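Consortium newsletter contribution from the modelling node. Members have asked for a concrete example of what our holo predictions look like. Here is one, prepared for the guanosine-5'-monophosphate complex that several groups have been discussing at recent meetings.
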Amino acid sequence: VEMEINLRKAIEHNEFVLYYQPQIRPIDSRMIGMEALVRWKHPTKGMLPPGMFISIAEETGMIYELGTWVLREACRQMREWHDAGGPLIPVSVNLSSQQFHQTNLVAYIRKILDETGLDPQYLELEITEGMMMDASVSTVILNELTALGIRISLDDFGKGYSSLSYLKLFPIHKLKIDRSFISDITNNDSDKAIVATIIAMAKHLNLEVIAEGIETKDQLDILMANECKEIQGFYYSRPLSAADVEAAFFVPM
Ligand code: G
Ligand code: G
Ligand code: MN
Ligand code: NA
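And here is the predicted structure:
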C-alpha cells in the first residue's frame, strides 16, 4: 500500500525516466534500434528498475498513465534525435497486457505520433505471446496498429505458451528470442538447437529476429554462425540514459 501511494506521487511528480538499450547489427556493430526501458528516479532510493514497480502499476491501473507517458517520451526523444541528425532507427516500447487491451490504445498512439511528429515506421511495440490468447480480439488490435504504420515485435519469444499459429494469424514484424535460451547457449545443445530453429523459421516466414541477453563473445559467435542479424545484450551495451546514448553511439556533429 505504501508503494502504491508512493507510485501515485511519482506519477504526479514526473519521477520517471527512460533508459535505452542499443540493438546492434553484429556484422558492422552498427546500432539499428533501441529498446526504451522505464526507470523510477526515486528521490531517496535512487534509480529503481521496472521489476520493482511495473506489476504494482498494473495491479492498480496506474499502468495506463505510466504507459502513456513512456510511449510519448520515447516518441518525443526519438523525434528529437532524428531532428538533431541522429541515426534514423526505431525505438521499441514494451506494452503491458492492460494497455494492449485498452479500448482507446490505437487512438492515443495515433495522437502521440501526431503530437511528437515521429514517423510511425520508427515506433515498434513489444507485446508478448500471452497477450494474444484471444485471437479474434488480438487480430483486430494488431491490424489497427499496423495500419498506423508502426511495427510489432513479439517479446520473450519461446518462453510463454507459444502457439506457432500466432505467427501466421497476426501481423508481426519481429521475433525477440527470449534471453533464457541464450544464457547457457555455449554449453547447452538444446538451447542452441532451439535458437537456430527460431532463426531459421523467422527467415522462412520473412520475419526479422533479434536475440536478447547476449553477454559474451562466445554467445555472440554462436548467434552469428546461425545468421542472427540483430543482437541486444550487455555484450554491446547495458540500457543507457539518453545522454549516455548520445555520448557512446552518436557520431559527433
Ligand atoms: O530494464 P529491466 O531489465 O529491469 O526490465 C525488466 C522488465 O520490465 C522487462 O521485462 C521489461 O519488458 C519491463 N519494462 C521495462 N520498461 C517497461 C515499460 O515501459 N512498460 C512495461 N509494460 N514494461 C516495461
Ligand atoms: O522482457 P524484456 O525483453 O522487455 O526485458 C528487457 C530487459 O532485459 C531489460 O531490462 C534489460 O536490462 C535486460 N537485459 C538486456 N540485455 C541483457 C543481458 O545481456 N543480460 C541480462 N541479464 N539482462 C539483459
Ligand atoms: Mn522488451
Ligand atoms: Na525479452
